[in-house]
Write a structure and sequence with these properties.
By secondary structure, this protein is an alpha/beta fold. It has helices spanning 16-27, 57-71, 94-122, 145-164, 190-194, 205-217; strands spanning 7-11, 31-36, 47-51, 76-79, 125-130, 170-177, 225-228. A seven-stranded parallel beta sheet has the order 3-2-1-4-5-6-7, sandwiched between helices.
Amino acid sequence: MGAEQKVAIITGASQGLGEAIVKGYRDRNWRVVANSRSIKPSTDSDVLTVAGDIGDPEIADRIVKQAIARFGRVDTLVNNAGIFVAKPFTDYTDQDYAQVLATNLNGFFYITRRAAREMVKQGSGHIVQITTTLADQANSNVPSVLASLSKGGLNAATRSLAIEYAKRGIRVNAVSPGVIRTPMHAPATHDFLAKQHPVGRMGEAKDIVDAVLFLEGAGFVTGEILHVDGGQSAGH
């Protein structure tokens, strides 16, 4: 495909969902710019890794500049990087608050603003946030106000950006997962977490990858919060 080969930026890409999303795009022959704090260089010439904290605006600059320098374009941004801290509200520390907002909101803002500028120049693009179904369907068994505060903000921003940029060829969507089986969740918690879903199981990384790639190909879909949560958002 040469110069026409499309390019996706994926944050939080070193493990779990992010690593799976990188593979999903590579399987479709996309080039990928992958970021996380601890990501290592890739042996794949079509994967450029950029290590650093997405909550740092200089890292966001570096990711987009290197994407353009190496691959010449930015077609999709997947805002996957996120911190999840489940605690009773009064147990949250100031550091918890600062860390969650730095990654979940500041990180989104810095990289999305820069990527969107490139998409505006191209006249096309797609931005996808990975949020959480807890922002829509609170669960007393999983107290997580900071997740709802930050990821709920991303849901609202998704709709706002979708409308703002609809006439400029840029689509903006979100995938709202339930609990997904990743290294974030210790095996001892899996039975408890599975029971939080009406379907009676945890999600798998492939469920989220499939949703992101569905949105990638759904050219008439924008402003959508796609729940991939085993029925949690519908009720209990």
